[in-house]
């Protein structure tokens, strides 16, 4: 089936913001606003969170009117909230042919979200429809439509959907909101950007959405009857992460298995120097315990000796790097016992309230343009900023000048973690001074250290009192097993390195570079377990990787990820969105067909009917499909939620159509129709001109 680029041409699903206002009140306010202002003179700023909209309105002095929750305007600017799920893509499960696998639609559609009513029927709520009509006039009437966000390709793709849905004809631009302080917002508004690159960034996001939808529906439905405990859909990133986890665990286990323990033996002499307890060790070790015992026996302790040398040693301890989203999630998991997605959600909430900079980043550096704003910190003068052009997207996570208020316990702990790291990073490398004292015992030099402070006065001759001795052995320890946060960092680094290598300049994109949700879904579906902090792939997880072919999956999914990002990073050398989706559609179609006809996953039996295409071989029936393994003919055994009876299957294979069947559409309404076998591999409803009823 042909695949077109994700132009999202439908008009049936919504956004994620629905004000709880009666339609009459919104209509009245809309009328008043329409009469008081000409839209053509106004700049429209669209953002995805109400707190961000409020911060923008305060910074740009847009405080004249609050039309409805999420819309603030004055005579020059309107700030509108359109949450990420308000205008969103259709799921493949609501398309005609639901439950027929594989499904690769010709066009991926979008629209206002559908929500259930009191009767359980899905549709666009009155509030959402009224809100969409209201903001649609504002958006279409502005002389410039500006997207204000800290997101990457996925956020830009959602903005493209908004513009297409509301038929925006005015110029569009982008404000990068790394921080929500007043000065930062005004600067972002002043230097907002235009250009073809944002169209390319949106294409990356849209194609990624389409790939995710196709993978999520087809692969989840293929495994649903096998994995009875499946609670979350199996997404593209889940399989990629699971394959990378197994590869990482196998490599780690092999490295730990090759470890050969090494035993070393030595002696130690304890003493007192300059009023401090000191432990002295020789530079050499002994290969056998007997040699160490002989050296121990020859040590004359207690005794008083004079230090042969006293040296001041200074070691520079590098400052810790600023947090990125991944390192923050890892640190919070280890120190605060918070799972990865919880940490991310808390960080996003802190950002939206203006307490920290955007957490959506994989860069731990700060640009030179921040020097003036951070001069309130005493360490700023010596801090190593980088050139502004070297950072693509958001910089490392820092705290803002706004004092945090009304934080719950988890939010306070995450904020304190970020603040401590920020201060430590600004302070720069720290110097650790030690006094190294050398004494000679039985002609062999022994060395000990004590912390050095300015109040310690070192005389020319340092007397050392040797008070005790001991003998010890040491066995090298094999590398410890990786923890869940080790996997998170390794896989996130892998995905980021792919972007940097093949598409440098690719901004941080939550759907591509954050794997927290993938870990959550894998645990929900019991494909990956957290056993006392250590990851373990379950039997179901190994079965998925074996049937999906882990090496094949890892290579292909990463290759498609690179090609999607190439639409932005290297557009001239990309194959284009249409061809890329065409290739991906063929791949996911073939992979899904292979899964639902895999004997290891589903039982199969030979049907008595002959293949209607080749006419020579019997078809094989699986739970989801009937297939001829000679000519490749396949026919789904379910359609629009209806599982065909044996009589209906026989009619489809023999005559190519069924009798009338009752179906229920996505709105909950019942209807009757005839199903016919299509010219290709799918099923469809009978064309109108062929119906006799």
From TrEMBL:
It holds the Pfam family Topoisom_bac. Gene3D superfamilies: 3.40.50.140, Topoisomerase I, domain 3, Topoisomerase I, domain 4. It comes from the Bacteria. Coiled coil: none annotated. GO terms for biological process: DNA recombination; DNA repair; DNA topological change. GO terms for molecular function: DNA binding; DNA topoisomerase type I (single strand cut, ATP-independent) activity. Residues 198-446 form the Topo IA-type catalytic domain. InterPro entries: Topo_IA, Topo_IA_cen, Topo_IA_cen_sub2, Topo_IA_cen_sub3, Topo_IA_core_domain, Topo_IA_DNA-bd_dom. This is Topo IA-type catalytic domain-containing protein. It comes from Duncaniella freteri.
């Amino acid at each position: 089936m042909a695949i077109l680029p994700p132009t999202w041409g439908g008009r049936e699903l919504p956004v994620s913001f629905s004000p709880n206002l009666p339609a009459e009140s919104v209509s009245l306010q809309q009328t008043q606003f329409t009469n008081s202002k000409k839209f053509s003179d106004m700049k429209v700023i669209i953002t995805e969170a109400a707190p961000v909209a409020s911060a923008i309105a305060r910074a740009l002095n847009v405080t004249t009117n609050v039309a409805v929750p999420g819309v603030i305007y004055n005579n020059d600017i309107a700030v509108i909230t359109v949450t990420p799920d308000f205008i969103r893509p259709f799921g493949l499960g609501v398309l005609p042919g639901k439950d027929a696998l594989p499904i690769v639609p010709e066009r991926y559609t979008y629209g206002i979200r559908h929500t259930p009513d009191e009767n359980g029927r899905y549709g666009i709520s009155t509030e959402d429809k009224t809100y969409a009509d209201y903001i649609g006039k504002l958006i279409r009437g502005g002389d410039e439509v500006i997207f204000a966000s800290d997101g990457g390709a996925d956020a830009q793709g959602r903005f493209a959907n908004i513009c297409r849905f509301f038929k925006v004809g005015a110029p569009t631009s982008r404000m990068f909101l790394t921080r929500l302080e007043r000065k930062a917002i005004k600067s972002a508004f002043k230097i907002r950007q235009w250009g073809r690159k944002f169209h390319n960034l949106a294409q990356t996001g849209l194609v990624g959405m389409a790939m995710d939808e196709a993978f999520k529906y087809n692969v989840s439905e293929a495994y649903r009857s096998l994995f009875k405990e499946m609670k979350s859909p199996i997404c593209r990133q889940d399989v990629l992460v699971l394959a990378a986890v197994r590869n990482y665990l196998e490599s780690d286990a092999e490295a730990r298995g090759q470890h050969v323990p090494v035993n070393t033996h030595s002696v130690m002499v304890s003493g007192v120097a300059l009023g401090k307890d000191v432990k002295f060790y020789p530079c050499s070790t002994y290969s056998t315990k007997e040699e160490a015992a002989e050296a121990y026996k020859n040590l004359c302790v207690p005794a008083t000796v004079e230090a042969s040398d006293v040296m001041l040693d200074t070691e520079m301890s590098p400052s810790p790097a600023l947090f990125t989203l991944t390192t923050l999630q890892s640190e919070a998991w280890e120190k605060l016992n918070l799972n990865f997605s919880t940490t991310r959600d808390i960080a996003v909430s802190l950002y939206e309230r203006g307490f920290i900079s955007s957490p959506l980043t994989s860069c731990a550096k700060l640009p030179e343009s921040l020097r003036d704003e951070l001069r309130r910190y005493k360490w700023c003068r010596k801090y190593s900023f980088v050139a502004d052009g070297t950072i693509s997207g958001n910089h490392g996570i820092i705290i803002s000048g706004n004092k945090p208020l009304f934080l719950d316990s988890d939010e306070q702990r995450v904020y304190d973690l970020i603040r401590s790291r920020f201060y430590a990073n600004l302070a720069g490398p720290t110097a650790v001074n030690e006094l190294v004292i050398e004494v000679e015992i039985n002609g062999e030099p022994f060395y000990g250290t004590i912390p050095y402070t300015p109040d310690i006065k070192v005389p020319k001759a340092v007397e050392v009192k040797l008070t005790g001795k001991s003998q010890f052995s040491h066995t090298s320890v094999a590398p410890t097993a990786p923890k869940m946060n080790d996997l998170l960092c390794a896989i996130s680094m892998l995905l980021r390195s792919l972007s940097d290598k093949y598409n440098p300049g690719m901004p941080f994109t939550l759907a591509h570079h954050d794997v927290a949700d993938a870990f959550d879904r894998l645990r929900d579906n019991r494909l990956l377990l957290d056993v006392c902090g250590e990851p373990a792939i379950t039997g179901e997880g190994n079965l998925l990787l074996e049937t999906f072919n882990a090496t094949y999956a890892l290579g292909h999914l990463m290759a498609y990820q690179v090609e999607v990002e190439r639409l932005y990073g290297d557009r001239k050398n990309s194959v284009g969105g249409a061809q890329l989706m065409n290739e991906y559609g063929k791949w996911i179609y073939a992979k899904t067909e292979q899964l639902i006809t895999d004997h290891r996953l589903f039982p199969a039996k030979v049907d008595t009917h002959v293949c209607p295409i080749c006419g020579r071989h019997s078809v094989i029936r699986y739970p989801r499909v009937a297939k001829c393994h000679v000519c490749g003919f396949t026919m789904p055994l379910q359609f629009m939620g209806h599982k065909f009876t044996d009589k209906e299957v026989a009619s489809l294979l023999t005559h190519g159509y069924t009798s009338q069947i009752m179906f229920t559409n996505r709105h909950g309404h019942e209807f009757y129709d005839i199903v016919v076998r299509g010219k290709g591999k799918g099923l469809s409803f009978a064309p109108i001109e062929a119906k006799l009823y």
